[in-house]
Design a protein that fits this description.
Elements lengths: L1 H8 L1 H13 L5 H4 L3 H8 L3 H22 L8 H21 L5 H28 L4 H8 L1 H17 L5 H22 L7 H4 L14 H6 L1 H22 L1 H7 L4 H5 L2 H22 L1 H4 L5 H12 L3 H30 L4 H28 L4 H26 L8
Helix pairs in contact: 2-7, 2-8, 2-9, 2-10, 5-7, 5-20, 6-7, 6-10, 7-8, 7-20, 8-16, 8-19, 9-16, 13-20, 13-21, 16-19, 18-19, 18-21
Length: 407
């Protein structure tokens, strides 16, 4: 009953978060990559060249995120989100109309900056700031938009590609982004936490302080978390980016691989909701050090999978960390560094993750071009996640003693 009441009383703000995370799909790798084959063919690009373009555009968006992410500390969601969605729509329109290969660099920059970067950043910062005692639940519900996008959009758009030119589908994406603007404005007619209340009703972090961005960057815990921030964004991105090539390696069609995504999404949603409820009960410090262990198993299975059941098992473990990763890291910044300067601090974290998503496709694409097979690369990816887990365990165990005690 308490859950039902929570959902009912906070429905407009939670729905706004879901709309934004769903619309961020048009700048996410899982969406862009379903057009990878058509883009490489249309502009005569190798895997490495396309990966390099993607890396360059994404890395540039990460640099801009360092500055732009801090805007969430100064502007309301209702004012900032429509501007970003207009920019996202124009980015989709540019992809549909672009005639030259070098234009892809700028298009990828704007898609990644407005989609993966700012649209999701606005939603996640809002949930972390608007909710304190129920932050985990709010994040798990708002981030259902990510899962909905991953489950529905690849199937729908890959299916439509059998009948429509791929460029026309980007026009549909632009229209959907624009349609989100009036919906956001209606849902956020009233801000959940007025500015006057927000300034006096903040949750503090370690040492009972509100950490500024410069203070967070100078603190050792931030650097212990860097491998964990880079890993999922780099290698989840790489997996989806090379999905067409990976399907060929496994001897299945692209549609057969995409058909497994709803299973992956269902498990991810369960992990997302479960981690959100567990977060409110046990706190981030007890949960986050172990969130990437399933990824170790997933990439080993992806490397050696020789049948559909093994692939599905890989997607099961892949989805567990994907679900955990949508709630736990976002709550981590608020819990350990406070909420007053959360937008600026999380902007750095978002930039690191966007930079990771730039490294992954370029690195793995170059590996494919020089003859290092994608399956062999996934063995090293699994070992990387073991390293990231060890770093989190050390950092969190040292830092958790400085957290404020619960009231």
């Amino acid at each position: 009953m308490r859950t039902v009441e929570f959902l009912r009383s906070n429905a407009p703000w939670l729905t706004a978060g879901m709309v934004l995370t769903f619309l961020s799909s048009f700048g996410q790798t899982f969406f862009i990559s379903i057009f990878a084959g058509h883009i490489r063919e249309g502009f005569d690009l190798t895997h490495g060249q396309w990966g390099g373009i993607y890396t360059l555009g994404t890395a540039a968006s990460a640099l801009v995120m360092v500055w732009a992410g801090g805007l969430t500390d100064h502007f309301r969601v209702r004012a900032l989100a429509p501007i970003i969605l207009i920019m996202l729509a124009f980015s989709c329109l540019a992809m549909a109309l672009n005639p030259v290969w070098w234009g892809l660099i700028f298009i990828i920059f704007f898609l990644r900056f407005t989609g993966q970067g700012m649209t999701s950043h606005i939603a996640l910062v809002a949930m972390s700031r608007w909710f304190i005692a129920t932050r985990g639940r709010a994040l798990s519900i708002a981030t259902l938009g990510f899962a909905m996008g991953e489950a529905l959009l690849p199937l729908v758009f890959v299916g439509l590609m059998a009948f429509l030119d791929w460029r026309i589908l980007w026009l549909f994406a632009a229209a959907m982004a624009l349609l989100g603007i009036p919906l956001i404005l209606r849902l956020l007619r009233a801000e959940r936490t007025p500015q006057s209340v927000a300034e006096t009703n903040q949750s503090t972090g370690m040492h009972h302080r509100h950490w500024t961005r410069n203070q967070a960057l100078k603190h050792w815990l931030f650097w212990f978390m860097i491998p964990a921030l880079l890993g999922p964004s780099a290698f989840n991105t790489a997996f989806f980016f090379h999905q067409v090539h990976y399907a060929d390696l496994k001897g299945i069609s692209h549609v057969e691989l995409v058909a497994m995504y709803p299973f992956y999404t269902a498990i991810g949603i369960a992990a997302m909701i479960g981690s959100g409820w567990a977060l409110d009960r046990y706190g981030t410090a007890r949960l986050i050090p172990f969130m990437q262990l399933p990824m170790v198993i997933a990439f080993f299975l992806f490397a050696y999978a020789g049948s559909t059941p093994v692939l599905l098992l890989g997607f099961f473990f892949f989805a567990l960390t994907t679900g955990f990763n949508t709630t736990l890291p976002n709550a981590f910044w608020a819990e350990f560094y406070g909420t007053r300067f959360l937008g600026s601090i999380k902007a750095i974290a978002a930039a690191v993750m966007v930079f990771g998503s730039a490294i992954g496709p370029g690195l793995t694409g170059y590996g494919i071009d020089i003859g290092l097979g994608l399956e062999n690369q996934y063995i090293f990816v699994g070992l990387y996640f073991l390293f990231a887990t060890l770093m989190m365990m050390i950092g969190i165990s040292r830092a958790r003693v400085f957290l404020p005690r619960p009231a």
